[in-house]
């Protein structure tokens, strides 16, 4: 079933309908059509039939000879198709648009995406395991970590683990109390840290009340937060206030995210935080998608995992240094699924010079 699902994704990437992967024989024809040329399917099918007939009619050794010829033919066809796509019936557009994904490229891209998804989902699952199977808590910590947008990620995770969500839930109907709780546990209640509609002195009194009421743990050290090399819109106190608004809305909890079916609905779940569209896309890519995939792995629900990858394919690609490098090499990056696959390729294979385990590097070295 897993291979059929991978072929379904490969078909969609190649411009074919995904349902074609589930029809026996017809899916084989489409494999040939996408990778090399449809005519090879009929020729190989004819040779297979002749070989099968020979096994039952002619001497057994002759049937085996026919099968051997068939296998050699197939190997040469695949090798020729990978080395010279034009000779195998593929047309290259000017500038190489789309050519990296032909044949091995399409299958390799899907495999890289699955590797990336499983690796990121594994981290979420490990987080849930450390929290004694509390997936809602794991979802909150994962969301909080990615509000750091890289630089403060570890600090956000440390902070989120200290937030007593059961206590916070009792005050979820009061945004200012939740903001005071969140900012107090971050040790960021300071009149010097300005934010629209934020009263630091009042928040300090509110936090002192909540800390006494719930016997809160010590907040994290203030000096851990990094403000240097951070854009003003990414300052920790502003992001935590946004995160508090999202938490109070209740739309970004795991239960709600499981019900979401399209990207627009996901954006609505994060809209309360007043995040830009680009920031919401990054949160979806780095938080929601791995979370859904991890929960699908936990439940052994292939449909939920497919939903995660389908949502990823609907998002625009990331615009970071790695993706700009790949684009500079002439690669066409059409969606976040492509960009995630390329990030996996760069970090796990190219940066480690692990060409022999890389599908693309191995084929290149054989030439």
Question: How would you characterize this protein structure?
Answer:
The protein has 367 residues and is mostly helical. The protein has 2 domains: 7-98, no CATH class; 108-313, no CATH class. The chain contains 18 helices and no strands. The chain has helices at 2-13, 26-35, 38-57, 60-83, 104-130, 135-146, 153-162, 165-169, 175-185, 200-214, 236-249, 254-259, 263-270, 277-299, 302-313, 321-328, 336-350, 359-366. Helix 5 (104-130) packs across helix 14 (277-299) and helix 9 crosses helix 10. The chain is elongated, with a radius of gyration of 26 Å.
Helix-strand blueprint:
Layout lengths: L1 H12 L12 H10 L2 H20 L2 H24 L20 H27 L4 H12 L6 H10 L2 H5 L5 H11 L14 H15 L21 H14 L4 H6 L3 H8 L6 H23 L2 H12 L7 H8 L7 H15 L8 H8 L1
Q: How would you concisely characterize the structure shown here?
A:
Helices cover 65% and strands 0% of the residues.
């Amino acid at each position: 079933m897993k291979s059929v699902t991978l072929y379904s994704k490969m078909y969609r990437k190649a411009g074919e309908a995904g349902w074609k992967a589930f029809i026996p024989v017809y899916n084989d024809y489409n494999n040939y059509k996408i990778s090399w040329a449809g005519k090879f399917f009929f020729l190989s099918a004819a040779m297979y039939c002749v070989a099968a007939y020979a096994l039952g009619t002619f001497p057994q050794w002759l049937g085996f000879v026919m099968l051997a010829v068939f296998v050699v033919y197939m190997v040469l066809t695949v090798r020729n198709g990978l080395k010279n796509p034009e000779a195998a019936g593929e047309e290259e557009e000017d500038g190489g648009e789309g050519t990296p994904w032909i044949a091995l490229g399409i299958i390799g891209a899907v495999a890289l995406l699955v590797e990336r998804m499983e690796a990121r989902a594994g981290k979420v699952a490990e987080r849930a395991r450390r929290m004694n199977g509390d997936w809602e808590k794991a979802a909150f910590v994962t969301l909080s970590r990615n509000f750091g947008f890289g630089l403060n990620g570890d600090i956000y995770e440390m902070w989120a683990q200290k937030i007593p969500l059961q206590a916070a839930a009792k005050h979820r109907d009061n945004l200012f109390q939740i903001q005071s709780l969140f900012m107090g546990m971050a040790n960021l209640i300071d009149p010097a840290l300005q934010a629209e509609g934020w009263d630091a002195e009042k928040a300090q009194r509110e936090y002192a009340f909540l800390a006494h009421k719930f016997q809160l743990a010590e907040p994290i050290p203030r000096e851990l937060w990094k403000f240097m090399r951070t854009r003003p819109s990414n300052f920790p106190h502003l992001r935590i206030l946004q995160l508090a608004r999202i938490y109070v809305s209740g739309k970004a909890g795991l239960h709600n995210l499981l019900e979401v079916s399209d990207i627009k609905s996901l954006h609505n779940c994060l809209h309360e935080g007043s995040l830009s569209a680009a920031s919401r896309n990054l949160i979806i890519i780095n938080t929601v998608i791995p979370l859904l995939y991890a929960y699908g792995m936990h439940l052994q629900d292939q449909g939920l995992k497919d939903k995660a990858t389908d949502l990823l394919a609907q998002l625009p690609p990331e615009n970071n240094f790695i993706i700009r490098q790949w684009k500079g090499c002439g690669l066409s990056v059409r969606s976040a699924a492509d960009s995630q696959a390329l990030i996996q390729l760069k970090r796990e294979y190219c940066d480690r010079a692990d060409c022999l385990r890389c599908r693309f590097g191995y084929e290149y070295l054989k030439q």
